[in-house]
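Cross-posted from the bioinformatics board.
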Amino acid sequence: MKKLINDPATVVDESVEGFGWAHADLVTVHRDPLYVVRADAPVEGKVGLVSGGGSGHEPLHAGFVGPGMLDAAVPGAMFTSPTPDSIAPATLAASSGRGVLHIVKNYTGDVLNFETAAELADAEGVEVRTVIVNDDVAVQDSLYTAGRRGVAGTVAVEKIAGAAADRGDDLASVASIAERVNANVRSMGVALSACIVPHAGNPSFDLTDDEIEIGIGIHGEPGRRRIPMASADEITEMLTTPVLDDLGLGGGEQVLLFVNGMGGTPLSELYVVYRKARHLVEARGAMVARSLVGNYVTSLEMQGASVTVLRLDAELMALWDAPVHTAALRW
Amino acid sequence: MKKLINDPATVVDESVEGFGWAHADLVTVHRDPLYVVRADAPVEGKVGLVSGGGSGHEPLHAGFVGPGMLDAAVPGAMFTSPTPDSIAPATLAASSGRGVLHIVKNYTGDVLNFETAAELADAEGVEVRTVIVNDDVAVQDSLYTAGRRGVAGTVAVEKIAGAAADRGDDLASVASIAERVNANVRSMGVALSACIVPHAGNPSFDLTDDEIEIGIGIHGEPGRRRIPMASADEITEMLTTPVLDDLGLGGGEQVLLFVNGMGGTPLSELYVVYRKARHLVEARGAMVARSLVGNYVTSLEMQGASVTVLRLDAELMALWDAPVHTAALRW
């Protein structure tokens, strides 16, 4: 295993410490328990937004803490849910009295731990609502999940809910907007290679030199099928068609098209995928109104990509366009 | 070779086409010859900035086209310099009559081709000045270079010269600012793995499972030495100490600290490197005033990182902070 780390036992702490120093204008890192919170938290008069999950998917979630998006992010160990004793304090730190929304990717550990944390926060007088993100159309139930997994669509939920909180929406409204994004976003991914979790030291699964996995999860969970290596256009079609079908995308609709890198694939290749995915969206008579291309929800150094499509209405588009200032997303 | 491409012969065209569609608000892609230019070029009353080089280093350079940075970028084939017949038209497209600055990484092919293009543009009445970026302290002379190579410091040159052009500086002043950045910036990189150039189909060099290359170039050119795998802190020290020594960094100075990923290394590891590099800068009594961490000057899917330090004065800091709106850098 060759990695730029010192020790599997300290990599998350050291990485988050470095992150906090690099972005001290935006965030404060709380140690023991570990969480990342807006430097100006709690923000008066605003619903707080908290997300989190296993580390190894950076920039998700800490890279999305800042004005217009999250108030706090809770990193667990690599590919391991954070525990309630870190989620609950992060929730309190994000609370200014108007309640807190938990944005949770649908993995059983995360769902349970955020639920317990919500109860702890409630006992402290902080009202918590939860939205579960489950945008991955690849499989129903998976290695760590009952139901569909939450993957790159989480970025859209966090961005748009963040904008709704920023404009002053109350907790029920922010939760409702987040649910609307989740209901209108679908994703599917492919792996060309596995990644190595530091404390494991070995690839999380095996792929031969001529094999790829369609419908991969962001922890290397099994997807739909393994197939021989194919062209970018063929692979992109295998990802995009199920996404568009599941979404029931029709002519005249407008979408956000988001091509996400799994961490180890060159940016140039992500734009090749984007090009074909855009063809496929347009072939249905829909229009790509907004685009995002890059490594946002990763699996360490996994090579691969995912295609995410979000159906936009005028309100969701305006909230997507609203200003955001975080380490990983800014406009 | 597993890559998200259709054909090594078309990957650059398809990638740039996708890039153009994804960022149509910012750029226009000109086909045959291939270059990327600001959608609103030429910008009246402003010195034009043009850069370019072999593809495979994305987001460099096309990702830096937009207000506050480049006016045009010219992508060559993978790891291959663009030719004068594409650089010259890009130069004309970027020209509004106040002259054009070529920002060229120091590789012999790029230097010669940009020089010829400058002569062609001059014949069309466009005054061109050139700054050669050579920030890599690892080696003197290399596989494709006489003298030091130009690597991640190019981002600082393009950003800061772009801000100088934006505030209305004339060609000589913009060139002078760019030279000042180059004189005050140093970089050094490490590879944990090689990358595969699509048309080659094989790794550009061989590293064993326990071996890394200190001082690697961004095309996999040999560095200073191969050593057994070491800890992130040890490796970071091997990169940062030569950078700080060469820069002659002293106590009380302020710097931009930039940790750049080579493309295949997880973001979490880049922050581990940043953390140690920051310790080392501060141990000299200098202050990290600005930070940048991410994949900006890559080598396809190479695993590794580089450390760049730019000595800042008040003017360079203000120009770094000036607004920028490109696909890859925005504030």
